[in-house]
């Protein structure tokens, strides 16, 4: 039940600003959770109702050697959306915190 409500809220919030307009602010949706917690299914449900021109999905795996030479959050800064677009991060900097606890 809670997952259905969350999907409905995300679709309502993201669906209204999914078209790339210059006046809309950029926004990021971060999907984070344990393995097999339903992040992929939730992402598919949300993206299904959105205009594909207004968002990008980024899967954030382990840092490669080049990314490790920069500050920790650099690779996430590089994925921030331009004005009027939505960025969906499949994993984020919270993964490191969850794995270390």
From TrEMBL:
Any Pfam family from its record, for instance, is PPK2
All residue ranges annotated as the Polyphosphate kinase-2-related domain in the record: 29-98
Tell me the keywords, alphabetical order.
Signal
Q: Which residues cross the membrane?
A: none
Source taxon at top rank: Bacteria
Signal peptide positions are 1-23
PANTHER family xref list: POLYPHOSPHATE:AMP PHOSPHOTRANSFERASE, POLYPHOSPHATE:AMP PHOSPHOTRANSFERASE-RELATED
Q: What is this protein called?
A: Polyphosphate kinase-2-related domain-containing protein
Gene source species: Prochlorothrix hollandica PCC 9006 = CALU 1027
